[in-house]
């Protein structure tokens, strides 16, 4: 930051503080806060450290937001203002020139403090008069405002003043994520989900401080991303889905719209083209690349492991160079996922040859390759990433190459597994995963994968059994909320008995967002529109 900018923000900040202090006396006369306890708030994921000071900050019609001028901070302030508006109806102004009859401020400040050296670290200092959010980066500030959103009560306390006040407990929060990669995956290939559905999922993930949405864009049943140089991929390959209910695909403009929407929420999109298995839709569009010796036909079933590419054809790699090139060009994030799972009809040596050649194509576009754990069998670079879903041996092989691991063990982290035998949707080939099982495990030590090799955690949502947003929400929530805590919070800060109370208190938020979550009977939901009994009835 330039010196003049530093001075300017310091000036704004001091003006606000002086102003807020002058007003203090008046306010104290008016507002008598009952004792609060910051540590008892229903924050998910649980912050690293909280120090309560038992007072109250009044969010009300006299609150304004000020932000640092550093890149991205004003946007974070405006995002918070919008969310405050939708929760409370308050019109909180952002960076207004003239300080009006102001009582309290939320100041979102860029700070170069070394204590905040992780890019997503933030600190919150909440007093009677101000909420000061410090972070090195706009990304960290964005995580911090999720905490502020969660601290704003659902209802105002109208007895404290003649106008409504939302009381935020005072104290200090020092927070920073345990893992840098905190993701969920959505399979838009088995069933297609609209841009609007994907945006809603991103909104929900961002609220719980996720920073990655991995989109499984292609599979046997459908190709869902426009490739301008190979138009039949979507024209033919995107024409159907599991059950034959229509299919669909994203134009590049729509995909860019998703990427931009995610970026505003500091969420990265990781695109996946799943190959050389899971390629039936591509082969129907362009049969010259088919490698299983059968005439490819559109597929609307749910079996896996029958398709493959002709891995020894050089033209295949020119085709994939185009595909990877076009997608990489509209994906600002550092990763490109090549799938690589369940290539049961690809000979092992052909599989390895394929993965090694495709890795070069990904690197040529300046991206890091991610693949399902099978890719660990190939001779690939330490910069590539293995997504551990089934085979510990494959994950260990990847680690031996210096690769990082994304933890997605199917029996713990798969959002498409049924909760129990009564589940309305889902599969159970890996396990039943009730809400507690999804939470009570330790990714840090799971299966002996060393902590220093773990890039993060991802919860994949496969869509064989779900075809609309309500069904998606049924499988994802509440479990995705638990995975946010597993990937953000330290093991010492996680405890099922205590977590389940914080989870129960997510019901008003989920209801307000119209999320049709599974109201697990293990949770004493605070106030749920979708009670367990209702679910049993329908
Ligand atoms: C396995 S997990 C798959 C997917 C299925 C999923 C269903 C993985 C890398 N492959 O093709 O959709 O099981 O749970």
Give an overview in words.
The protein is of the alpha/beta class and 538 residues long. It is 34% helix and 18% strand. It is built from 17 helices and 17 strands. Strands 8-9-12-13-14-15-16-17 form an eight-stranded parallel β-barrel, surrounded by seven helices. Strands 1-7-5-6-4-2-3 form a seven-stranded mixed sheet, sandwiched between helices. Strand 10 and strand 11 form a beta hairpin. Helix 2 packs parallel to helix 3 and helix 4 runs parallel beside helix 6. The protein is elongated, with a radius of gyration of 25 Å. The relative contact order is 0.10. The structure holds ligand TNX.
In short:
The protein is an alpha/beta fold. It has helices at 3-30, 73-88, 138-151, 195-207, 232-235, 252-264, 280-285, 314-329, 348-364, 392-400, 410-413, 435-439, 469-476, 479-488, 496-504, 507-512, 532-537; strands at 49-59, 63-67, 93-94, 104-110, 122-126, 130-135, 166-175, 181-187, 212-216, 218-219, 222-223, 268-275, 335-339, 368-372, 385-388, 404-407, 454-461.
The ligands found in this model are: ligand TNX
Quote the beta fraction. Answer: 15-25%
Q: What gap, in angstroms, lies between the N and C termini?
A: 58 Å
State the helix count: 17
Which percent bin holds the helix content?
25-40%
Tell me, rounded to a whole number, the average pLDDT.
93
Low-confidence stretches: 22-29, 531-538
* Rg (CA only): 25 Å
Strand order of the largest sheet: 8-9-12-13-14-15-16-17
Question: Sheet bearing the most strands, described?
Answer: 8 strands, parallel, barrel
Question: Structural class, from helix and strand content?
Answer: alpha/beta
- How would you sum up the global shape? elongated
Total number of beta strands: 17
């Amino acid at each position: 930051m330039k010196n003049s900018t530093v001075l300017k923000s310091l000036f704004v900040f001091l003006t606000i503080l002086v102003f807020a202090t002058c007003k203090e006396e008046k306010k104290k006369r008016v507002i008598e806060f009952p004792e609060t306890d910051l540590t008892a708030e229903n924050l998910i994921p649980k912050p690293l450290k909280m120090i309560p000071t038992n007072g109250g900050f009044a969010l009300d019609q006299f609150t304004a937001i000020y932000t640092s001028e550093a890149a991205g901070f004003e946007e974070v302030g405006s995002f918070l203002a919008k969310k405050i508006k939708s929760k409370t109806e308050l019109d909180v102004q952002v960076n207004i020139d003239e300080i009006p009859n102001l009582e309290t401020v939320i100041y979102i400040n860029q700070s170069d403090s070394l204590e905040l050296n992780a890019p997503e670290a933030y600190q919150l200092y909440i007093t009677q008069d101000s909420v000061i959010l410090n972070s090195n980066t706009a990304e960290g500030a964005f995580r911090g405002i999720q905490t502020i959103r969660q601290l704003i009560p659902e209802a105002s306390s109208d007895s404290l003043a003649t106008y409504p006040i939302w009381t935020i407990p005072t104290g200090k929060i020092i927070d920073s994520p345990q893992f840098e990669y905190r993701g969920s995956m959505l399979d838009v290939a088995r069933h297609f989900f609209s841009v609007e559905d994907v945006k809603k999922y991103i909104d929900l993930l961002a609220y719980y401080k996720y920073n990655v949405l991995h989109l499984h864009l292609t599979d046997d049943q459908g190709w869902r991303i426009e490739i301008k140089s190979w138009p039949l991929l979507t024209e033919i390959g995107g024409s159907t889905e599991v059950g034959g209910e229509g299919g669909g695909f994203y134009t590049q403009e729509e995909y860019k719209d998703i990427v931009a929407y995610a970026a505003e929420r500091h969420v990265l999109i990781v695109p996946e083209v799943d190959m050389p298995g899971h390629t039936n839709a591509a082969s129907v569009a362009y049969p010259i690349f088919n490698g299983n010796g059968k005439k490819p036909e559109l597929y609307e079933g749910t079996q896996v492991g029958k398709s493959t590419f002709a891995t020894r054809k050089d033209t295949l790699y020119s085709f994939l160079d185009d595909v990877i090139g076009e997608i990489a060009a509209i994906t600002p994030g550092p990763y490109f996922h090549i799938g690589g799972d369940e290539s049961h009809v690809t000979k092992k040596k052909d599989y390895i040859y394929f993965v090694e050649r495709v890795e070069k194509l990904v690197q040529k576009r300046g991206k890091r390759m991610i693949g399902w754990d099978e890719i660990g069998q190939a001779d690939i670079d330490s910069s590539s990433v293995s997504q551990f879903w089934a085979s510990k041996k494959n994950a260990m092989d990847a680690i031996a190459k210096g690769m990082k691991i994304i933890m997605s063990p199917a029996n713990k982290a798969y959002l498409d597994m049924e909760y129990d035998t009564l589940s309305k949707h889902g599969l159970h080939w890996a396990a039943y995963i009730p809400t507690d099982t999804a939470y009570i495990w330790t990714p840090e030590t799971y299966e002996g994968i060393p902590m220093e090799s773990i890039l993060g955690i991802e919860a994949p949502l496969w869509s064989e059994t779900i075809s609309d947003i309500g069904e998606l929400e049924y499988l994802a929530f509440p479990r995705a909320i638990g995975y946010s805590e597993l990937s953000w919070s330290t093991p010492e800060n996680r405890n099922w008995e205590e977590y389940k109370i914080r989870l129960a208190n997510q019901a008003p938020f989920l209801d307000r967002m119209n999320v049709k979550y599974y109201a697990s009977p293990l949770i004493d939901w605070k106030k749920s529109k979708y009670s367990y009994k209702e679910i049993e009835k329908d």
